[in-house]
Amino acid sequence: MAELRDWQARSQDHGALPEKFRDLDWLRENLRQLENVPTDRMWDLIRDRIALDIQNEQQRTPGHLRRLRQWVSYAAAVLVLIIGWLAYKHYSTGQQKGGELPMPIVAKSSGPITGNHQVLLTLADGTVVPLDQVPNGKVAETADFILTKTDSDRLEYTLKPGVNETAINSRVTTGHTSPFHLVFPDGSEAMLSYGSSLSTSFHGGERELALTGEALFETVKNSHQPFTVVTKKTRVEVLGTRFDVSDYDDESGAVSLFSGAVKVTHKGESKLLKPAEQALVGKEGVEVRRMGDSLSVLSWASKDPYFHFENAELNAVIQRIARWHQVKIYNPDDVKGAPITGIFRQKESLEAILGMIDRVERGYAFLKRKGDTILVSPAMAAR
Q1: Domain 119-294 adopts which CATH fold?
Q2: Domain boundaries, the chain
Q3: Looking at beta carbons, which pairs linking 109-118 to residues 24 or more positions away fall under 8 Å?
Q4: N or C: which end of the chain has fewer CB within 10 A?
Q5: What is the pLDDT of residue 76?
Q6: How far apart are CA 166 and CA 189, in angstroms?
Q7: Radius of gyration for the alpha carbons in the chain, expressed in angstroms and rounded
Q8: What Cα–Cα distance (Å) separates residue 2 from each residue in 8, 51, 80, 111?
Q9: Which segments of 116-223 are extended strands (E)?
């Protein structure tokens, strides 16, 4: 706090900046600057400072107290450096033409349109609409229905007047993004997770969706119009219920039921789920068990999304984190590491999350980011 107050006293701009954090609109825009913070340079400065502190305090205080003082110094340094960098970027970019703030580029899409987009809508005729870039309002129209973007993260399918049955053929694909909501003409809803794809095919009295990744569904009961979710591993048949389906290529599949009833089919084997039950789909078939914690299942769908791991294998943890940050994994020695239990907020930077995991993995594995890749190596070889 002393260092922060000293920094505030150095200029009027420094002194005024903390008050800016009370303005939510200003905060929302300026926090995007943190994507551009030179973290490598910051960590180098902090490590140098900690090393100097250790050198100066050795043998002068008990080990645990010395370590505490070092981490207090470390925390203060992080706070001052981040606020200082944010202030510098804010006041320097404000002098540029138009005062526009640079928007960080997170990842590139591989769709047929140019640019960097995180939510893409593909229609039956091949038309691609970047939903994260177009304004709210009507985004597409067919003979039977209208697609309207009603919020930054919400797309609604509406039947045209006089149309009783619709044929919907479309696909929504997400990248590094918060959950995206889809509302279908019958009132059924889907919340699509990051790194996922959902194709809709409503026709001939059937409601069928093809999913890659993860989504939360809340369907309207209609005995004359079955609702089905198909993945590479499973087929989930529904009448009216609320359930979550997870089926990423690099993970075992899972269907979690919150209300109603669903039938899960995998390679000819079918299981009927009751509320609070979960079907795990792997190489050995389908295993039904009680759902331990619904909050952990829906951690990605909360207002403040997070990763929740309970005694999870290191490689499974890294896969989830790498998918969110859209980076690759390089583990040439097939390092297994130690099991991970904990919660990591998705809004944390990749470096921060890897730093927390690295402290757990000391003596087991070493993790480091290099460009667009997470490097995993044996602990002794790397340290």
Answers
A1: Jelly Rolls (2.60.120)
A2: 2-99, 119-294, 304-382
A3: 109/173, 109/175, 111/173, 117/175, 118/174, 118/175, 118/176, 118/177
A4: N
A5: 57
A6: 16
A7: 25
A8: 10, 21, 11, 51
A9: 119-123, 128-130, 137-141, 145-151, 154-159, 168-174, 180-183, 189-192, 197-203, 206-218
Q: What is the pLDDT of residues 132-165, one digit of tens each?
A: 888 899 888 877 788 999 998 999 988 888 776 6
Structure tokens at 248: 């990423």
Q: Rounded distance, CA 267 to CA 82, Å?
A: 53
- d(C-alpha 110, C-alpha 117), whole Å: 9
Contacts of 378-383 with C-beta under 8 Å, sequence gap 24+, read: 378/333, 378/335, 381/333
User: Is the sign of the CA dihedral 155, 159, 164, 169 positive or negative?
Assistant: negative
- Using CA atoms, how far apart are residues 125 and 121, in angstroms rounded to an integer? 12
Q: What are the structure tokens assigned to 196, written together?
A: 């996922």
Give the CATH architecture of domain 304-382. 3-Layer(bab) Sandwich (3.55)
Q: What is the mean pLDDT of residues 251-273?
A: 90
169 sits in the region (left: phi over 0; alpha: psi -120 to 50; else beta) called beta
Q: How many residues does the chain have?
A: 383
Q: 14 to each of 92, 285, 329, how far by Cα in Å?
A: 13, 60, 40
Q: Whole-angstrom Cα distance, residue 381 to residue 293? A: 38
Angstrom distance (rounded) from CA 300 to CA 293: 13
Phi-psi category of residue 85: left, alpha or beta, with phi > 0 → left and psi -120 to 50 → alpha = alpha
Enter the tokens of residue 164: 């009783």
For residues 316 and 337, what is the distance between their CA atoms, to the nearest angstrom?
Answer: 11
- Model's pTM, two decimal places? 0.64
Q: What's the gap between Cα 296 and its chain centre?
A: 14
What local confidence, expressed as pLDDT, does residue 79 receive?
58
